[in-house]
Write a structure and sequence with these properties.
Layout: H1 6-17, H2 25-32, H3 39-44, H4 51-64, H5 70-77, H6 82-96, E1 110-112, E2 115-117, H7 136-148, H8 152-164, H9 171-177, H10 183-196, H11 214-226, H12 233-241, H13 246-258, H14 265-270, H15 277-290, H16 296-305, H17 309-321, H18 332-338, H19 346-356, H20 360-372, H21 375-388, H22 394-400, H23 406-423
Antiparallel strand pairs: 1-2
Helix pairs in contact: 2-4, 4-6, 5-6, 5-7, 6-8, 7-8, 7-9, 8-10, 9-10, 10-11, 11-13, 12-13, 13-15, 15-17, 16-17, 17-18, 17-19, 19-21, 20-21, 21-23, 22-23
Length: about 425
């Protein structure tokens, strides 16, 4: 028999007999060199009884890439070994967010006897674009790992993955994950809820406002604020009256400022003169959201007197929320837009503009600067309208998608896709 026919016969035997043949990581790598066409054969090695071989399968599937790897990676999340689960989870995220595997939990896995150790990265702010559609089977697979992962690390990693993919379908599993009482799992679950932004989850987090772990408590406080969980207001007020530490106080004030009630206005005013820059910023933005016209002079005074950037941005936002939508050179709204050029504070200004642009008068005021601003202003105003625009914003983004600057045009095109995915029936 010609030597050229031997390999196909062996591969066929592998597909039929599963683990009958010797299977090593080296075998997997050799087969995977064939690229996309070898995906079904590479996936067969998931039948191996050797963990190292199954781990190599996941690595090679990720390296090959493409939509045909999704089903084998989903299968990998069902493996009994934690490392296989973790790497398969990262691989699924990587399909929708290319490059993720280089910084996911799997990239830090270290063998320690019969167990593994891994270090979570501190950065947890990644999310796919809103227009990206994730297959329901992917979210369901990750939800299963959140519930039944081989280790707590595997569960926590799956929570993080669900957040990155905005996995609404796994929300109940994230809520149940809070019962693990493992600080890492609880923290990752809370951050995922923040990314999904379903207000239904807010009341289910309130009981964690007094959690004994500072990091979990802070995340819970932030979560109830972002999800506008009014049920949490009494707890937030209690924390402010007797905070465990400065971090808890700052987080509680920031969350209270996201959903203030009339009775909170005096508390917010008292923080306008706080030593902490972030507290002064939260106080000013909270008064803006409260929308009481009588408070506008107080915010204006803070805007004029404030020397620090963060609280001045908070005061600018507060005035915009109070109805000051002028785009003249010295106006608060113009100040927020100008700050989009600042590498240090552009994200703060962007968040304020995204929220403010939910108002029709603010959106209308942004259309002209979108045409005339700097590159940084234009690209970020595209993101603002992608998140907060309405059908009336489509024309402005269509124009941005044809901008002479290629970077602006690309951002405009992506923003247009996102906006249409939100407003088109």
């Amino acid at each position: 028999m010609p030597r050229t026919h031997i390999a196909p016969i062996l591969l066929c035997a592998l597909g039929i007999f599963g683990t009958a043949l010797a299977q090593t990581p080296k075998d997997v790598r050799a087969v995977a060199k064939g690229g996309t066409s070898t995906i079904p054969t590479v996936a067969q090695y998931l039948n191996s009884s050797a963990v190292d071989t199954r781990v190599e399968v996941i690595k090679q599937l990720i390296a090959i890439g493409g939509k045909d790897t999704i089903d084998p990676l989903i299968r990998g999340t069902k493996d009994v070994d934690a490392e296989v689960q973790i790497r398969a989870t990262d691989g699924l995220v990587n399909f929708y967010l290319p490059g993720y595997v280089k910084q996911g939990l799997g990239s830090s896995v270290i063998k320690a006897g019969n167990s593994i150790r891994a270090k979570f990265s501190d950065s947890n702010d990644q999310m796919i674009e809103a227009f990206v559609v994730v297959r329901p089977e992917v979210v369901a697979a990750l939800a299963t790992v959140v519930r039944n992962g081989a280790t707590l690390d595997a569960k926590a990693n799956a929570c993080r993955a669900v957040g990155i993919l905005r996995g609404q379908g796994a929300l109940l599993d994230l809520i149940d994950a809070l019962r693990t009482k493992d600080n890492r799992v609880m923290y990752e679950s809370l951050i995922a809820m923040q990314k999904i932004r379903d207000p239904e989850a807010g009341p289910r987090v309130v009981y964690l406002l007094r959690d004994l772990d500072d990091k979990v408590q802070s995340a819970a406080i932030e979560t109830v604020g972002l999800l506008r969980a009014k049920d949490a207001l009494p707890g937030l007020r209690n924390i402010l009256s007797s905070p465990r530490n400065k971090v808890a106080e700052r987080s509680a004030l920031a969350s209270l400022a996201l959903m203030p009630e009339p009775q909170d206005r005096n508390v917010l005013k008292s923080y306008l003169s706080a030593k902490d820059d972030k507290n002064r910023a939260a106080a000013a933005e909270g008064l803006g959201r409260a929308g009481e016209p009588a408070d506008k002079p107080v915010i204006e005074q803070a805007w004029k007197d404030e020397q620090k950037m963060l609280p001045r941005l908070g005061a600018a936002f507060g005035l915009v929320m109070q109805g000051d939508v002028s785009v003249s050179e010295e106006a608060p709204l113009r100040y927020l837009m100008n700050t989009l050029n600042s590498s240090a504070y552009r994200d703060v200004a962007l968040a304020y503009l995204v929220e403010a642009a939910r108002r029709a008068d603010v959106r209308q005021a942004l259309y002209q600067p979108l045409e005339q601003g700097t590159r940084d202003e234009k690209t970020r105003l595209c993101r603002v309208l992608a998140a907060s625009g309405d059908a009336g914003s489509i024309a402005a983004l269509e124009k941005a998608s044809r901008d002479a600057d290629a970077e602006v045009a690309k951002e405009g095109f992506n923003a247009l896709r996102t906006l249409r995915s939100r407003v088109t029936p």
